Amino acid sequence: MRGTEIAYELAPAYAPELNIVGAAAGGLGVDMERISRNANGGLFSGVVFAGLFGLDRAYPSMKMDSILTEKGKELRRTLSGMCVFEYTAAYAFKRVQSYTVGGIDPLTVPAVRTALAENKPGAFGTPKAPGYFYNASADELVIPADVDKLAARYCAKGVVVQSVTQPGDHVSMLATGYPGAVDWIADRFADKPAPSTC
């Protein structure tokens, strides 16, 4: 849901003519470096690979191919044709360093660190519409405390935010949290005041 959140921040400057009544994002990854470090070698390792390769497309200065082994380059080609469920299953419990020359950790490469820093939510502007963030208390991928910090930064800037943490893990949260997000959006379209946890 990073795309939703970043578009939410960009909207006031990028598309001020749009009447955005609110934005809801679940399982929001705020600090991609922290998430990548936590997920590397775990169940969601495939997400780390996909994230690095996707970011490399936008930031050619990362030069990921220069640190990938032949096995790593093959992984990149294979992964590019997969959906999230496929690459999550295929690369679970793999470590990024096992696909890099000399076991280089891409997160120590300055160009990678710069790209990650430039893509943190909160770096693109201040939203004007209310926001709804929903997360799982036992999320194995994203870090709920980081979402709380982002919500607090928005609140300090006068943005109305409701941040909800519920029991469960990353996958179950997407199912159990979705109805609340749909109801919240429906209330915004109905011009009801947005609740706040600020």
What's the structural blueprint in terms of helices and strands?
Blueprint: H1 2-14, E1 23-26, H2 32-39, H3 45-58, H4 70-79, H5 84-90, H6 110-117, E2 131-136, H7 144-156, E3 161-166, H8 170-189
Parallel strand pairs: 1-2, 2-3
Tell me about this structure.
The protein is 47% helix and 8% strand. It has helices at 2-14, 32-39, 45-58, 70-79, 84-90, 110-117, 144-156, 170-189; strands at residues 23-26, 131-136, 161-166. The chain has a three-stranded parallel beta sheet, sandwiched between helices. The model has no long low-confidence stretch (mean pLDDT 90).
Share of β-strand residues:
5-15%
In the sheet with the most strands, the strands line up as 1-2-3
Radius of gyration: 18 Å
Helix content: 40-55%
Number of strands: 3
Name the shape in a single word.
globular
Distance between the termini: 21 Å
The helix-strand sequence is: HEHHHHHEHEH
Task: Look at the helices and sheets and give the structural class.
Answer: mainly alpha
Number of helices: 8
Mean pLDDT: 90
- Low-pLDDT parts are none
Summarize the structure.
This protein is mostly helical. Helix content is 47%, strand content 8%. It has helices at 2-14, 32-39, 45-58, 70-79, 84-90, 110-117, 144-156, 170-189, and strands at residues 23-26, 131-136, 161-166.
